[in-house]
Amino acid sequence: xxxxxIIKQVTKRYKGGGGISDFSIQVGKGEVWGLFGPNGAGKxxxxxxxxxxxxxxxxxxxxxxxxxxxxFESAMSRVSCLIETADAYEYMSAERNLKLxxxxxxxxxxxxxxxxxxxxxxxxxxxxxxxxxSLGMKQRLAIASALLARPALIILDEPTNGLDIDGMLxxxxxxxxxxxxxxxxFLISSHGIQEMEQVCTHACMIAGGTxxxxxxxxxxxxxxxxxxxxxxSAIHHQAKGEAMAHV
Length: 247
Ligand SMILES: Nc1ncnc2c1ncn2[C@@H]1O[C@H](COP(=O)(O)OP(=O)(O)OP(=O)(O)O)[C@@H](O)[C@H]1O
Fold this sequence. Notes:
The chain is of the alpha/beta class. The chain has helices spanning about 45-50, 70-75, 95-100, 110-120, 135-145, 165-180, 195, 215-220, 225-245, and strands at about 5-15, 20-25, 30-35, 60-65, 65, 80, 155, 185-190, 200-205, 210-215. The termini are far apart. The site of adenosine-5'-triphosphate has 13 residues, from helix 1. Keywords: ATP-binding, Nucleotide-binding, Transport. Belongs to the ABC transporter superfamily.
């Protein structure tokens, strides 16, 4: 089966020195990938490159067999992303916001709005103005909007921000359900490895812009190592490498 996403040797360096270097992974249908790394590791940079919000200096990204740079519209046609909070119109209701978002998808059945409100647990709040929503409710609404067109690939940047424990459990359940029942593929960036570990089938760990480890969770945790321990060792390894480079 053709991979959903092929990232090959992607490099992007900002003038200040940050960015990512030589990043490559291949993601298959229905897989849930966690992209883990500390602040400033390069997670958002990578997600922006994947979704055409930022250009790589070199390397390539293919989504569903289409190069993001050369065939942007085809590459993104089955992709939804939430990168750096998607703001809703505060003076409108949740339902009205979704109706506005639905205008981008002329073939969307009317009942889909009710379905996504149900999926994110906002059915009872659908007529309330977003201005009265908590951060967690706004996050749920943003996720509802991302789900509208039944995307085959969903890219989420720190989706647990603003969610309480209930919200986090709900989000993990939703991701697992969509991956299992609809074969939806996910790439999710997070600082919180413990929050997302249980729902991920695969992980990649990035530090200082470098991909340290990647693969199925079962391989990364082989021999009884926890994912967090594997992550900490990757981060320390990177920090040590940086210190040596400065000697
Ligand atoms: N537009 C930019 N111009 C210059 N440097 C940038 C820019 N965007 C990000 N950087 C730098 O690149 C590095 C990676 O940033 P990025 O936002 O990708 O990391 P991150 O892993 O998403 O971090 P966080 O978890 O804090 O959101 C950081 O050192 C950051 O300061």
